[in-house]
Amino acid sequence: MFAHARAAFARRLLARRRAGRKGGDAREGRLCRAAQRRAAALLLTVLLPGLLLPAYAAQDSEPFVPPIAVSEEPLSNAELPEVEASAYLVMDADSGQVLLQKEPDTRHFPASVTKIMTAGLVLEACGGRLSEPVTASEAALAAVGEGSTMISLRPGETLTVEQLLYATVLQSANDAANVLGEYVDGDLAAFVRRMNETAGSLGMTHTHFENPSGYHADGHYTTARDLARAMRWALTVPGFPELLQIEEYTLPPTNQTAYPRRFQTDNRLLLAGEQHYDGILGGKSGWTPEARYTMIEAARRNGHTLIAVVLDCPTAAHRYADCAALLDYCFAHFLSCELSGAALQLPEIQVWSGGEQKGMVQLVTAAASILLPEGCTPDDLRIETEIPHWYVYGVEFEAAAMLTDARTGREICSVAIEPEPEALQRLLGRSLSNRRPWDSRKLPGLVLGAAILAVLAFFTSYYARRAERMRRNATRRSLFRLRSTLPVREAPDAQEQIDAHEEPDAQADKIK
User: Fold this and answer.
1) Rounded (to 5) percent helix, strand, coil in the chain
2) CA 126 distance to own-chain centroid
3) Range in 348-352, 362-366, 424-428, 496-500 the model is least confident about
């Protein structure tokens, strides 16, 4: 009786174990499917903002650039000079104020004035290493377009960074520009990305570069306003103003050439002669059949540096004459006006840091002075400000003051406003030199990166579980094949089953 009970118990235990294995497989399947659902939900959570953000963030994707001038109306009543360029702009390099403009945001092909950006980036990256040798590669020289201006560099030819800069700016050599771009970032594509990223950070919202030289391409374009912004930035790069002042340079023989090569600028406003311009700092010219004649010039008089940009000129003579006429007009008909927070009637602002209010700081203007049209005095200015309620440390601060000529209603310029830096430093008790405000333009990139990581995590989990299931299935198939090869044991009769479950002592008694 007890033997039958033990046999029944053993059968129930065996059945529960088999059911437990099946239930475990079912539970593993449910867990796997649940993990996949969670991964899919995470993926949607990460991707949906990335899909929706561009629609809402497109309006704020451009960096904050205070409006310097909002119409093409001349600020001065003086008669405008005759200019042949299709588009032009004159900017005060110190304040960013626009004095004259015509079609400033119309896209044009820049030609070799592109090299202003190239030279500025090279000096920014290699300013302390101008004597380092650079070897021209076959890839950089092969990318030079047909019909380009060159100094005939050869693969393996070695020049210094400084010598290549002279060739790029003075001779407008496309092969030298390519070699420099490759040297800075390892390949031309990476350097072009650097050019476009810098353009974006400077507020050049209507510009796209495709090469370091300005060789014509349909996707290589810019505007008069954007080029003025590029020149304004480049003038702040150490070594760049000095580079523009060089009139000629003789390149000595190199490891590939046995003869010297002479580079000379074609800038007639810089060279001695009838068209020499007093106070000229230098500039860069350009020409292609598609762009026609282009020019950027910078000159300094009366304590102000002005930048003149002309695009789509009919001849080389017109680009120099146009720049000189525009600069003459602005130097003659605009007068300097000192700015201060008191003059602009700027208030104090609350400062927050770490979720706490730290105190009040006086707002000041970022521009030391501006240029007023002839006949306009500081007493004639009407000032309108756009200022946030508070300043949060580490967050980009967007504030500006619009200055209008109350006599005519013309908007003269807008100047940026900021908390007084020294007072802010004292209040917060820290250095502000390394402050990096949050840039909302980085958000789409961060979302995309998170989405890619979520996708990788999803597929890694999926394939890991799939591999585990395949391993278990392979093991079960192997065991099944192994069992199928074993001889089949005949089922014992009822008496044998009873004897097999009897106590050992009872069996021993039977043997005796």
Assistant:
1) 45, 20, 35
2) 20
3) 496-500
Q: Is 428 helix (H, G, I), strand (E, B) or coil?
A: helix
The pLDDT of residue 501: 54
- Residue 144 DSSP class: S
* Sequence-separated (6 or more) residues with CB below 8 Å from residue 171: 149, 151, 263, 264
- Give yes or no for a contact between 373 and 333, defined as CB atoms under 8 angstroms apart: yes
Q: Which tens digit of pLDDT belongs to each residue from 21-43?
A: 444 444 445 545 555 555 555 54
Characterize the bridge pairing of strands 390-392 and 348-353.
Answer: parallel
Token pair listed for 86 = 């299709």
- Amino acid identity at 391: Y
The string of pLDDT tens digits covering residues 372-395 is 988 888 888 898 888 898 999 888
Q: Is the dihedral of CA 65, 71, 77, 81 positive or negative?
A: positive
Q: In residues, how long is the chain?
A: 512
User: Other CB atoms closer than 10 Å to residue 361's CB: what's the count?
Assistant: 22
**pLDDT tens, position by position, 290-323:** 999 999 999 999 889 999 999 999 999 999 999 9
Structure tokens that stand for 225 in this block: 């306003």
Instruction: Find out whether 306 and 231 touch, Cβ atoms under 8 Å.
Output: no
Paired strand residues for 108 = 222
Q: How far is CA 21 from CA 50, 110, 153, 197, 209, in A?
A: 43, 74, 75, 59, 64
Residue 248 sits at φ, ψ, to 5 deg, of -155, 160
Q: How many whole angstroms separate alpha carbon 38 and alpha carbon 374?
A: 69
Nearest to 222 by CA among 135, 156, 291: 291
Degrees to nearest 5, angle at CA 167 with 150 and 326: 100
Q: How far apart, in Å, do the first and last CA atoms of the chain sit? A: 23
| Beta-sheet pairing, 261-264 with 158-160 | unpaired
Q: Which residue has the higher pLDDT, 188 or 499?
A: 188
Q: Which of 338, 332, 341 is nearest to 378 (CA)?
A: 338
Contacts with 299 (C-beta within 8 Å, 6 or more apart), sequence order? 269, 277, 278, 279, 280, 281, 305, 306, 308, 327, 331
Amino acid at 191: F
Computed on alpha carbons and rounded to an integer, the radius of gyration of the chain in Å comes to: 38
Check residue 81 and report its DSSP letter: P
In the three-class reduction of DSSP (H, G, I as helix; E, B as strand; rest coil), residue 347 is classed as coil
C-beta of residue 272 within 8 angstroms of C-beta of residue 190: no
Q: Give the pLDDT mean for 351-357.
A: 86
Rounded-to-integer distance, Cα 439 and Cα 442, Å: 6
pLDDT one-digit tens code per residue, 391-443: 998 888 888 888 888 888 888 888 888 898 888 888 888 644 444 444 455 66
- Specify the pLDDT at position 9: 45
